[in-house]
Amino acid sequence: MIGLAIFLSILSMLMWAASDFLTKFLVDLHDHRVALFLVQFFAVACALLLLPATLSGGIPTGPALTRFIAFSSISAAASAAAWVFFYKGVREGLLSVSQPISSLWVVITVSLSFVFFGERLGLRVVAGMALSVAGIVLISLPASGDLKKMKTDAVYGLLAMGAWGVGMFFLKPAILDGGPLLSTVFVRAMEFLFLLPVCLPHVIAARRKYAFGARRIFLLSGAIGALNTVAFVVYNKAVSQVGLSVPSVIISGSPAAVVALAYLFHKERLSARQAVGVALAVAGLVLVSL
Questions:
Q1: Residue 268: how many CB atoms within 10 A of its CB?
Q2: Whether 124 contacts 272, CB under 8 Å
Q3: How far apart, in Å, are the Cα atoms of 93 and each of 24, 38, 125?
Q4: What angle do CA 202, 45, 74 make, to 5 degrees?
């Protein structure tokens, strides 16, 4: 079971990395709130395709249903805030800064899981997490180490990190009560509802101001939404098998892939410090996956 969970975690990490990479193209075409609305719309549409399988698996009842709705709603609200911060950071600056910093949510999630769920961390997992976090810090922070000199993309990355850490923490009890499929459908739908007040006014304004129906915008939005949803399902499945700690640490390796893609396609050049950070993040991923 642990081998399958590791495979699913790596697969979800790669899909999320591809999704984040494509996001940079999308936010360069539209206001980040319009881009976020389109992506979440397609993500919900993909999630609803899972509804027949979800219903056939049964719906929790009684106290389990109450817990599921409560934890899923909290997770969705926190994740919706994280999406807004992340898209704003990518829009304002470099993907290779915003994405690695936001990926530090794993530290918050694993720490909360250790404190409240009693999940024990083996020495190898702790070492892998330490390497991954060290790598992300090197990739993201200013060369001077002065936090006051962090740019807007780094600040929004930190806000996204905090919100996602809380959201993923509350996701586990929702998965335990409702299963990975129902959790995916419900949380995705709730995220979209929470995002409507933030995004819809800008969508309406964009529709009035200029051509909203460019084919590439919808193709990009659909691809990102599909990748996000499938990755979410795969990740939830891994969490349902082995808990939060191992999957969370494995997907923290996604910044290495994102930074490499940003270097190749967005021309975001790596410093020597960032290159070392990428190597450390990958080393941490390998260590956890052994």
A1: 18
A2: no
A3: 10, 21, 32
A4: 75
**Structural domain boundaries, residue 112:** 2-289
Token pair, residue 245, equals: 């700690």
Cβ proximity of 30 and 206 under 8 Å? yes
Residues 6+ apart with CB under 8 A from 249: 106, 110, 125, 128, 129, 132, 284, 288
Nearest Cα residue to 153 out of 137, 166, 141, 167 = 141
Half-sphere exposure of 83 (CA within 13 A, CB side): 32
50-107 pLDDT, tens digit each: 788 777 767 888 899 999 999 999 999 999 999 999 999 998 888 888 888 787 787 7
Assigned token pair, 156:
């929004």
Q: Which residues contact 16 (CB under 8 A, 6 or more apart)?
A: 227, 228, 231, 251, 254
Model confidence pTM above 0.85: no
Residues 288 and 254 sit within 8 Å (Cβ to Cβ) = no
118 by Cβ neighbours in 10 Å (0-12 / 13-18 / 19+) ranks as exposed
Amino acid symbol at 163: A
Please tell me the total count of domains within the chain: 1
